Amino acid sequence: MTRHPLLLQQIAQAFPAGVPALSGLAELIAQVSTSYAAADSERSELERAVATAAAELAERSRRLEDQVEQLTRLEQAIAERAAELDQRMRSMMVLLDHVAQGFAMAGLDGKIRGDCSLAFTRWFGATREDVAIWTMLAGDDSNLAAWIQLGFESIRSDLMPLDIVLDQLPRQIERGGRQLRIEYQAIGVPLSAILFVVTDITDELARRRAETAQRELLAVVDNAYRDRAGFVAFLREASAIVHGDPRGVSLAELTRRVHTLKGNAALFGVTSVAEICHEIENRIAVEATVPDAASWNALIETWSAFHDRVEQLLHVSQRRAILIDWDEYQLVLGTISDHEPALAAQLRRWSQDPTRPHLEHFADRAKTLARRLGKGELEIELHDHDLRVDGERFAPLWSALVHSVRNAVDHGIEAPDVRRAAGKPARPRLVLASELRGGEVVIEIRDDGCGIDWQAVARRAAELGLPARSRRDLMDAVFASGLSTASEVTQTSGRGLGMAALRTTCSELGGRVELVSEPGVGTTVRCCIPLARPASRTRGASLYRV
Question: Which CATH class is domain 353-546?
C-alpha cells in the first residue's frame, strides 16, 4: 500500500520502533493516506486557479493602466480642442462684431441660445432669457411679433414643411429708421434651432430708389421730347387728379381717374406713379371705399417728387413756347385774318398740336409692351395726314386712347405661335392713323389680332347683370365700366375701365367712338371728334359696327 509522505513522517514519529500489528490500524492509515492525497490534489487545483486568477488580474490591471493613460491623453486632447474652439469662437465673435450683419440663434421655443453678434444687439438690444426672439425683432409691432411667433409654433407642430414655414416668415422689417433684411437657416438634424441672419439694407434700398428715379427720369425725358405737347397735357391733367380731393367725386369717377392716371404715367415712363396708382386701384376694388389719407398722400408725395425733378430739368410748366407772346400772336392773327386767309391759316397751324408725335409715342409704347408680353416685334403703320388739332382741347382724348392701344396689344394681338397656327404672319400689325373727314377729326387704332371674344363678353356681362341677348347689347357691354374678360388684373389691363373712359371722353368732346371687330381678323377702334368746339356740348351716342 502506498502511503502519503506526510503520513509516513507522522507514523515514524509516533512509532519509532515500528508500526504495531494492531487490528484496524492498517485500515486507518490507508484512509488517512487517501485523505492526504485528496487534499494535495485539491490544493494543487486551487494553486493553479489562484495562479490563473492572478495572471488575469495582472492583465486587467495592465489594460486598466493603458485605458487610464488613453483617457488621460483624450482628456488632454479634449481640453486642448476646447481651448482651440473657445479661441475660435472668440475670434469669430470679434469677426462678427465687425461686419454689417447681425447673427442670433434661437431654439424652437423662441429663446436665444448663446451670444448674439454686436450688430444684432445694437439693432434689437441686449438679449435676456425671458425675452423671445419675436419680441426682440418686432419691438412695439405686436402684429409682427405674432407673425413670427406663429411661425415658430408651426415649426414645433410640424404641420407644414419647414421650408414653407421659413418662406412665410417676414423677410424685411423696419427698426429705428433702418430697413433690415432677415434670412433664416435651420440648425441641426433633427431640427434644434433657427439661425437668424440680419442685414442692414437701408443704404442699398436708397441706392436702388435713386437708380430707379434716374432711369425713370431718363425715360421720361426721352418721351417728353418725342411728344412735348402730350407730355405737358399729361402733367397738367395728372396734377389736377393728384391734387384733387378724392372724396369730392363718386367712387366710379375716382376709379376712372386713377386708372387713366396709371395708364398715362406708364405711357410716359413714370413707373413710380403708375405703381402707386395700381396699389390704390387694388384697394378700391377690394374695399370699395375711397383710399385713406396715407395712400393718397403717398401718391401726392411721389408725384410731387417726380414733377419737381422734371421741372428742374425741362422747365415744362409753361405750355406755350412760340417765338412771340401769345397775346401778340392772337393780335397779329386777327389783323390778317380778313386780308390774308391763307397766311392766317398757316399761322393757326403753328399754334396747333401735330398728331404725329402722339401716334409715334403710341407706336413706341405698343412695341415695348408687345416685347414685354411675348407678342413679338410689331409692324407699325402710321398715317397722320399732317393733321394738327387744338392741343388743349384734344389732350383728354390722347390720354384716353392709351387704354385702346394697351388693349390692342394685350388682348387683341396673339402670340407668334398662335398666329402661325391660325395661318397669320408671325409678326403682328398695328395701324395708327389720324385724318380730317368732313369736319371731324378721326383717330383710328387697328390691329390684325383675334378680334373680340363675344362669348366671353356675354358671360362676363351676364355675371355683372348687363343685357347680353343681342350684338348691340354686347357692344354696349364692351364699353361698360368694370367689364373685362381678362383672367387677372395687371398693371397693363384687367380692370375693365379703359373702354368706358374712352367713350366718356369722346362724348364729352361732342364726338363718338366706333368699334369694328371681326373674329380672327382684328379690331378697329375709331374716335370721331368735331374739329370745332360744339356750340353746346352734349353727350354723343356711341356708334358700333360689327
Answer: alpha beta
